[in-house]
Design a protein that fits this description.
This is Thioesterase-like superfamily protein. InterPro entries: HotDog_dom_sf, THEM6_lcsJ_thioesterase. The chain is built from five helices and six strands; from the N terminus they run αβααβββββαα. It has a single domain, classed as Thiol Ester Dehydrase, Chain A (Roll), CATH 3.10.129.10. It is α+β, with helices and mostly antiparallel strands. Strands 1, 2, 3, 4, 5 and 6 form a six-stranded antiparallel sheet that branches. The longest helix has 18 residues. The protein is 30% helix and 29% strand.
Length: 178
Protein backbone atom coordinates (compact mmCIF):
# COMPACT_ATOMS: atom_id res chain seq x y z
CA UNK A 1 0.00 0.00 0.00
CA UNK A 2 1.20 3.48 -0.83
CA UNK A 3 2.44 5.41 2.24
CA UNK A 4 -0.15 8.21 2.06
CA UNK A 5 0.10 9.04 5.77
CA UNK A 6 3.87 9.30 5.59
CA UNK A 7 3.60 11.50 2.48
CA UNK A 8 1.11 13.82 4.17
CA UNK A 9 3.41 13.97 7.20
CA UNK A 10 6.44 14.89 5.06
CA UNK A 11 4.53 17.61 3.20
CA UNK A 12 3.19 18.97 6.51
CA UNK A 13 6.57 18.74 8.24
CA UNK A 14 8.37 20.65 5.48
CA UNK A 15 5.59 23.12 4.61
CA UNK A 16 7.35 26.03 6.31
CA UNK A 17 10.89 25.16 5.23
CA UNK A 18 12.58 27.92 3.30
CA UNK A 19 12.05 27.89 -0.47
CA UNK A 20 14.78 26.24 -2.52
CA UNK A 21 16.29 27.19 -5.84
CA UNK A 22 15.25 24.68 -8.49
CA UNK A 23 18.59 22.85 -8.14
CA UNK A 24 18.63 23.06 -4.33
CA UNK A 25 18.90 19.94 -2.20
CA UNK A 26 16.01 18.89 0.03
CA UNK A 27 17.10 16.81 3.04
CA UNK A 28 14.63 14.61 4.90
CA UNK A 29 14.78 11.77 7.43
CA UNK A 30 12.86 8.51 7.31
CA UNK A 31 12.64 5.23 9.19
CA UNK A 32 12.46 1.80 7.61
CA UNK A 33 9.24 0.41 9.05
CA UNK A 34 8.21 -3.27 9.27
CA UNK A 35 5.93 -2.99 6.22
CA UNK A 36 8.88 -1.68 4.17
CA UNK A 37 10.97 -4.84 4.55
CA UNK A 38 11.32 -8.03 2.55
CA UNK A 39 12.00 -11.65 3.56
CA UNK A 40 15.61 -10.74 4.44
CA UNK A 41 14.44 -8.15 6.98
CA UNK A 42 15.77 -5.22 4.98
CA UNK A 43 14.25 -2.42 2.92
CA UNK A 44 12.58 -3.96 -0.12
CA UNK A 45 14.00 -2.73 -3.42
CA UNK A 46 10.54 -1.84 -4.76
CA UNK A 47 9.63 -0.03 -1.56
CA UNK A 48 12.84 1.98 -1.91
CA UNK A 49 11.41 3.51 -5.09
CA UNK A 50 8.20 4.40 -3.26
CA UNK A 51 10.06 5.93 -0.33
CA UNK A 52 11.98 8.16 -2.72
CA UNK A 53 8.60 9.82 -3.40
CA UNK A 54 8.75 11.02 0.22
CA UNK A 55 11.72 13.16 -0.75
CA UNK A 56 10.64 14.26 -4.22
CA UNK A 57 7.24 15.68 -3.31
CA UNK A 58 8.53 17.97 -0.52
CA UNK A 59 11.34 19.00 -2.89
CA UNK A 60 8.67 19.92 -5.46
CA UNK A 61 6.83 21.82 -2.74
CA UNK A 62 9.93 23.80 -1.73
CA UNK A 63 10.83 24.84 -5.30
CA UNK A 64 7.26 26.01 -5.94
CA UNK A 65 6.23 23.18 -8.25
CA UNK A 66 3.26 21.93 -6.20
CA UNK A 67 1.60 25.36 -6.47
CA UNK A 68 2.25 25.41 -10.23
CA UNK A 69 0.75 21.93 -10.61
CA UNK A 70 -2.42 23.06 -8.85
CA UNK A 71 -2.70 26.34 -10.77
CA UNK A 72 -2.13 24.80 -14.18
CA UNK A 73 -3.77 21.42 -13.50
CA UNK A 74 -0.53 19.66 -14.37
CA UNK A 75 0.65 16.26 -13.22
CA UNK A 76 3.96 14.53 -12.61
CA UNK A 77 5.35 11.34 -14.07
CA UNK A 78 8.50 9.26 -13.90
CA UNK A 79 9.66 8.31 -17.41
CA UNK A 80 12.71 6.27 -16.40
CA UNK A 81 15.07 5.51 -13.56
CA UNK A 82 18.26 3.73 -12.66
CA UNK A 83 19.14 2.70 -9.11
CA UNK A 84 22.29 1.59 -7.35
CA UNK A 85 21.77 -0.43 -4.18
CA UNK A 86 24.96 -0.57 -2.11
CA UNK A 87 24.14 -1.01 1.60
CA UNK A 88 21.31 -2.76 3.38
CA UNK A 89 18.78 -0.71 5.31
CA UNK A 90 17.30 -2.77 8.13
CA UNK A 91 13.96 -2.48 9.92
CA UNK A 92 13.76 0.56 12.22
CA UNK A 93 16.94 2.04 10.78
CA UNK A 94 16.74 5.79 10.17
CA UNK A 95 18.15 7.22 6.97
CA UNK A 96 18.79 10.67 5.61
CA UNK A 97 17.44 11.25 2.12
CA UNK A 98 18.84 13.89 -0.21
CA UNK A 99 16.85 14.98 -3.26
CA UNK A 100 17.69 17.49 -5.99
CA UNK A 101 17.17 18.35 -9.65
CA UNK A 102 20.40 17.81 -11.55
CA UNK A 103 19.48 19.31 -14.93
CA UNK A 104 16.77 19.31 -17.59
CA UNK A 105 16.45 19.20 -21.34
CA UNK A 106 13.62 20.09 -23.69
CA UNK A 107 11.30 17.40 -22.24
CA UNK A 108 12.57 15.96 -18.99
CA UNK A 109 13.83 17.01 -15.57
CA UNK A 110 16.53 14.72 -14.17
CA UNK A 111 16.36 14.20 -10.41
CA UNK A 112 18.91 12.45 -8.24
CA UNK A 113 18.20 11.10 -4.79
CA UNK A 114 20.19 9.15 -2.26
CA UNK A 115 19.67 7.47 1.11
CA UNK A 116 22.41 7.77 3.72
CA UNK A 117 22.94 5.61 6.78
CA UNK A 118 23.80 7.02 10.22
CA UNK A 119 27.35 5.71 9.65
CA UNK A 120 27.72 8.16 6.75
CA UNK A 121 27.60 5.44 4.10
CA UNK A 122 25.44 5.92 1.04
CA UNK A 123 22.95 3.02 0.96
CA UNK A 124 21.50 3.71 -2.48
CA UNK A 125 21.26 6.30 -5.23
CA UNK A 126 18.70 6.88 -7.98
CA UNK A 127 18.62 8.97 -11.12
CA UNK A 128 15.13 9.66 -12.47
CA UNK A 129 13.90 11.05 -15.73
CA UNK A 130 10.75 12.95 -14.74
CA UNK A 131 8.24 15.08 -16.58
CA UNK A 132 5.49 17.54 -15.84
CA UNK A 133 2.39 16.65 -17.85
CA UNK A 134 -0.55 18.69 -19.03
CA UNK A 135 -3.62 18.06 -21.18
CA UNK A 136 -1.44 18.18 -24.31
CA UNK A 137 1.30 15.88 -23.00
CA UNK A 138 4.72 16.77 -21.61
CA UNK A 139 5.14 20.40 -20.52
CA UNK A 140 8.56 21.74 -21.56
CA UNK A 141 10.77 22.30 -18.50
CA UNK A 142 11.42 25.86 -19.68
CA UNK A 143 7.69 26.57 -19.25
CA UNK A 144 7.71 24.84 -15.87
CA UNK A 145 10.66 26.94 -14.67
CA UNK A 146 8.88 30.13 -15.74
CA UNK A 147 5.71 29.06 -13.92
CA UNK A 148 7.58 28.43 -10.66
CA UNK A 149 9.35 31.78 -11.01
CA UNK A 150 12.79 30.26 -11.45
CA UNK A 151 13.60 31.16 -15.02
CA UNK A 152 17.14 29.75 -14.94
CA UNK A 153 19.20 27.96 -17.54
CA UNK A 154 19.75 24.28 -17.04
CA UNK A 155 23.04 23.33 -15.44
CA UNK A 156 25.33 21.29 -17.65
CA UNK A 157 24.41 17.63 -17.34
CA UNK A 158 27.18 15.68 -15.61
CA UNK A 159 28.89 13.11 -17.84
CA UNK A 160 27.29 10.18 -16.02
CA UNK A 161 23.80 11.64 -16.64
CA UNK A 162 24.60 12.23 -20.32
CA UNK A 163 25.88 8.66 -20.63
CA UNK A 164 22.71 7.22 -19.04
CA UNK A 165 20.46 9.30 -21.32
CA UNK A 166 22.44 8.18 -24.39
CA UNK A 167 22.45 4.51 -23.35
CA UNK A 168 18.74 4.53 -22.56
CA UNK A 169 17.98 6.09 -25.96
CA UNK A 170 19.47 2.99 -27.62
CA UNK A 171 17.08 0.58 -25.92
CA UNK A 172 14.46 -0.72 -28.33
CA UNK A 173 10.86 0.33 -27.85
CA UNK A 174 8.63 -1.53 -27.72
CA UNK A 175 10.94 -4.11 -26.14
CA UNK A 176 11.26 -7.82 -26.85
CA UNK A 177 10.01 -7.72 -30.40
CA UNK A 178 10.69 -10.92 -32.28
Amino acid sequence: MYPFVRMIWQLFKHRKDSPLPVTGTHVSHHMCLPWDIDLWMELNNGRTLTLFDLGRFPLAQRVGLIGALKRRKWGLTVAGSTVRYRRRIRAFETIEMRSRAVCWDDKFIYIEQSMWKASGECANHILLRTAVTGKDGIVPPKEVMAEVGQNVATPDAPGWVQAWVAADAQRPWPPMQE
